[in-house]
Each structure stands twice: as C-alpha cells, then as structure tokens.
C-alpha cells in the first residue's frame, strides 16, 4: 500500500515539474524575440536618422531651407541698419566735400512754397549734363539740398523743357539713387509735377512707378504747361529760367489756363 502511494507521488511530481531542457528552449526563444524586436527598432531609428541627415544635407546643398521668423527679422534689421549707415556716410560727405561743380549748374534748387506751405524743389532737365558730370557728386548735392527739406512734406517740379538725350541719366543710376534715399524721401513727397512731358518721360514714368516705385505712382502728375502749376503753386513762389517761360508761351500761347486759387491743392 505504502509502496503504491510512493509510486503515485513520484509520478505526480514528475508531471508537475518542467524539465530543465524545456526552460532552456523557452528562454532561447524569448531572448531571440527580444533581440529581433530591438534590432528592428535600432534599424528603424538608424533609417530615420539617415533620412533626416540626408534631408539636411540636401537643404544645405540646394539652399532650400526655409528661414525661421527670427532669421528673417534679423536679416531685414541688419540690411536696414547697413542702408542707414550708408546714407549717413553720404550725408557726412555731402556736408564736407566741395560740390560747386554741381551746385553752380543751377539745375536743382528750392523755389518758395506751394499753396499749402510745402517747400517746392525745382529740377531743370536741360541744365543737367548727365554725361559730362560726376554723378556721385550729383547724388551728394541732391542729398545736401534735400535732407533738411524732406523732414516734412514737400513737392518737386521737374521741367522737361527742351531736354535731349544728353540730359538723360541711365536707368541704373536712377535705380541706385532711389534705393539709397531713405523712406522719408518717398513718404513726405506729396507731389511730383512733370512739366512739358514727352513720350520718353511718359514711358519712363510708367516704367519707374510700375516696377520701381509704385508707392509714388499717384503722386506723379504730367502737365502740358507751366500755368497748370499755378493751381498748386502761386506764380510769385515759382522761380524758373526764362527759356522755360519762353518755350511755354511759344507752344501754348499767353494765359491759356486760369488756375483755381483756393486753400486746397487738387494734387495734394
């Protein structure tokens, strides 16, 4: 009896225990699964890193990395600072260098004020020897004359009377001048009158105000005669050379336009 129970107990113990060989196999399978999972993760991470590095290299080579907001603001700020410093250097030169070569020509000067009290700057195209003058000194004299004026509102009267190709500066020079002058020059300019325009001035005006200076497009006014200016500028405030009035009378006659004299300017 006792012997049968011992045999039965032994069989029960053998059935309930797991053999060491089975444990070893299970451990190997589990370890292999862990290794495969880890290897897959590492492989995926390596692929992501390689792809990211490739994208960065491509951006560096092609220059297609978008600028961050702070980079854009920083670049624009530095560009504006450099632009201001360049103008300040030119202004210092304008105040110290001898510019009689340009000022003695008499093509650019201030002449009174308009009916709203704004300074009037006169430019006579015929007297500007574009191909026989130091254009750098011409720019310096422009800055010397206009810098104190453009701190407030002002107007320009450009007389194209009897000009020729010798008086036309290059487009590149005009673009350079416009880019050099600070914002106050454009902002405070309230009217730009072109008297005795030609086809050339109309084409130039259209091109310039369309592609270079659209902000001043509505401020430009082409006038066929001097007397059209009198609506905005009183006659005694407008000092112009005799050749302009003589040409005007020969072309348009005498008293061809009766200005409306009031306190407001139609071109303001």
From TrEMBL:
Per the UniProt entry, what species is this protein from, by scientific name? Anopheles atroparvus
- Its name, as the record gives it, is CRAL-TRIO domain-containing protein
Q: Name one Pfam family in it.
A: CRAL_TRIO_2
Against CDD domains, the record matches this protein to:
SEC14
Specify the CRAL-TRIO domain's residue ranges. 95-252
- The UniProt annotation puts the region (Disordered) at 1-23
List the lineage, top down. Eukaryota, Metazoa, Ecdysozoa, Arthropoda, Hexapoda
């Amino acid at each position: 009896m006792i012997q049968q129970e011992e045999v039965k107990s032994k069989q029960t113990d053998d059935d309930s225990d797991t053999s060491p060989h089975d444990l070893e196999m299970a451990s190997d399978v589990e370890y292999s699964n862990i290794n495969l999972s880890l290897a897959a993760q590492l492989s995926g991470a390596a692929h992501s890193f390689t792809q990211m590095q490739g994208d960065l290299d491509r951006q560096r080579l092609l220059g297609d990395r978008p600028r961050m907001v702070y980079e854009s603001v920083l670049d624009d700020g530095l560009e504006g600072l450099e632009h201001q410093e360049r103008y300040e250097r030119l202004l210092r030169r304008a105040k110290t260098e001898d510019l009689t070569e340009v000022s003695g020509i008499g093509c650019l000067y201030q002449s009174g004020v308009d009916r709203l009290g704004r300074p009037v700057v006169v430019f006579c195209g015929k007297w500007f020897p574009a191909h026989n003058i130091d254009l750098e000194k011409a720019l310096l004299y422009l800055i010397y004359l206009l810098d104190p004026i453009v701190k407030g509102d002002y107007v320009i009267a450009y007389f194209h009377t009897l000009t020729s190709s010798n008086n036309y500066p290059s487009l590149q020079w005009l673009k350079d001048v416009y880019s050099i002058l600070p914002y106050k020059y454009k902002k405070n300019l309230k009217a730009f009158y072109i008297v005795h325009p030609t086809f050339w001035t109309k084409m130039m005006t259209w091109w310039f105000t369309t592609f270079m200076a659209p902000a001043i497009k509505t401020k430009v006014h082409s006038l066929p005669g001097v007397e059209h200016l009198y609506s905005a500028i009183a006659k005694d405030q407008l000092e112009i050379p005799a050749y302009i009035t003589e040409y005007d009378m020969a072309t348009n006659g005498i008293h061809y336009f009766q200005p409306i004299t009031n306190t407001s300017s139609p071109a303001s």
